[in-house]
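Researcher: Good morning. I'm working through a list of sequences from a screen, and I'd like to move beyond sequence-only analysis. For each chain I'm collecting a predicted structure so we can compare shapes side by side. This is the next one on the list. No need for commentary yet; just the structure.
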Amino acid sequence: MIYVGIDPTAGRRPFNYAMLDSRLRIVAEGAGKADEVIDLIGKQDEVMCAVDAPRMPNIGRMADADTRSRFDLPTNSGTWSQYRVCEYELRRRNIKLYNTPSEVEAAPTWMKAGWKFYDDLRQIGFESYPSSSKRQFFEVHPHAIFTVLLGRVPYLKDTLEGRLQRQLLLYDEGVNIPDAMDWFEEVTRTHILRGEIRYNGVRTHDQLDALASALAAFYAHTKPKQITMVGDVEDGQIVVPIAELKEKYE
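Model: Good morning. Structure tokens for this chain:
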């Protein structure tokens, strides 16, 4: 089984991807156009693929009176109706993420790219997790993955400390990437004065998101009792690699 994490983008920016084997060694890692990534995945016989994008538009489940009653929300209010159940479940725990609109035309370009990517996966034989298929896919949110594994909200992902924190976590989880602590050997007086600090081995936040997604795919296949499928089946669930969510993440 190969575990794949996909971080879709849109426009001129490429898709970031990471592929791990059963020992969490990196099989492939990089960026490319959607069709190039699909071709790469299509060459694998057994794949668990985690995609950082909503699986479907918002179908209005959070506007339903029964659903709102279940969450002790006023039934005569539209608050949270612009979110899917999975998005509400994470946001109320202080795990921030985008909401998914109900109208396809209103969705940002990266979401539309994600929907097309799911369609492309189905075209090459992928089925929605969980199933008996050797090729499965599901939705993830890397920020949620890092948050639940850390037990707290991480530093901002586009800061150096945020990247180091995420890479340390992945390393501690067993992913075969450099120990981010090794980078501190670069922080010397001479390197700083000369402007010669190098970031070799420290991943970008897009690369880290793809690796975290691949790790979630590994969890879903090898440790199914240690994941939570957040949300409602009908409007899409987000998989996080933790057996039980906290009520709130500080």
